[in-house]
Amino acid sequence: MNDDEVEARLRDALRQFAGDAPPGVSMLSTVTAESARRGRRVRLAALASGAAAMVAIGAAVPFALRGAPPAVVAAPSSPASPAPASPAPAVSTPAAPALFSARPATLVAATVPPSLVFPVTPPTGDGYGTPMISLAADRLTLSQTLPTTAPVTVTAYDSQPPSPAKQARTTPAAVAGRPATVYEWSWSGDDRTNPGSAPRVSLVWHPSARTWLRLDADGGTAVPLLIAYAEALKPGGAKAETPFTFTLMPSGWTVDDISPAVVTFAPPGTDPGAGYLSKLVVQLDEEPGLRPKLEGPATVGVRVGDRQAWLTTTSQVQFLQIPVDGGRSLMLQVSPAAALPQDVLLRFAAGIGVTPSAQVTYG
Predict the structure, then answer these.
(1) Is 20 in a helix, a strand, or coil?
(2) SS3 content of the chain, % helix, strand, coil (to 5)
(3) pTM of the model as a whole
(4) Helices (H) and strands (E) in the chain, counts
(5) CA-atom Rg of the chain in angstroms
């Protein structure tokens, strides 16, 4: 099974449970929080035991969502607001243990969008799950579960998307009177008969002059159901607020992935995608961050603005844990390929704020 298949299967598994998202939390999903919680728990265990590689968010294994909905934390009045708790003892800002060779870097004004706007509006009620809008590999996606609990993903394109596989079987169709194409394909690419492959079905159509949409689902999902969902998508953008605000970001880096719980930054030369490998990841942790998650010489106290924070450094990964208002903490995860000089990392972190829509991760 290749990396793309693992990533897509995981995302489909997450979307399958998106209907459990709490009502009234627009464009958020408990799924994202659960995925991040489990992923970081694995990462922290790997860090503590000196594992040889950092793991990406979420393990690609089945799981059950916890019953309690995730919390949503209000934004601090400013990125430098102290956490509303007893202050920890003042510390200096020592140099962390050597991480890896951090490249020289400068910070420039951040280009993270304040919100994501998908070009069509999804249906609500009548058994539809809470929609989730994300940006991955520079493409906007909308994920939702159908009344049958089937998970689907809609990806927006500004031109006709290519076939999802070289030997996909195509069938003509129509969506609201417009020509469409149904693709039946598998993750094994050219060999659709491979019993170990994952069958998929995609519907591609052109709802407006500037937009193409591709609807993806499991191969067992009936095509008439996909067409009915496609016709339920209405003109007009669906908007989701970005979970964090940023004052600065490393020069030359790209904003690679935005979801209700996570924003990632990729250094030059990093392939775009939804994974965490080779990136700098920003998320909101459930814990207040007044003490380090990991005790020992790998963790040092540092200053981020006027807040005391904790920087944990090993040869495989680096975590920066920063208290914020609301009894939570920002957690920055840095992979070796995304290493920044310590002073640059701390200045970058000092410019991060939390929006009311930020989904809390658990770990």
Answers:
(1) helix
(2) 15, 35, 50
(3) 0.70
(4) 4, 21
(5) 21
Rounded distance between C-alpha atoms, residue 30 and residue 17, angstroms: 8
> Exposed (0-12), middle (13-18) or buried (19+): which is 311, by Cβ within 10 Å?
buried
pLDDT tens across 261-299, in order? Answer: 999 999 998 887 767 889 999 999 999 999 988 888 889
Four-CA torsion 25, 275, 272, 241, nearest 10 degrees: 10
Residue 67, C-beta contacts closer than 8 angstroms, at least 6 positions apart: none
Tokens of 246: 């940023």
Handedness of CA 273, 275, 296, 362 (dihedral sign): positive
Angle ∠(17,173,16) on CA atoms, nearest 5: 5
Q: Using N-to-C axis directions, what is the helix angle for 3-16 and 30-49, rounded to 10°?
A: 130
Please, are residues 337 and 317 in contact by the beta-carbon 8 Å criterion?
no
Cα–Cα dist 34/29, whole Å: 9
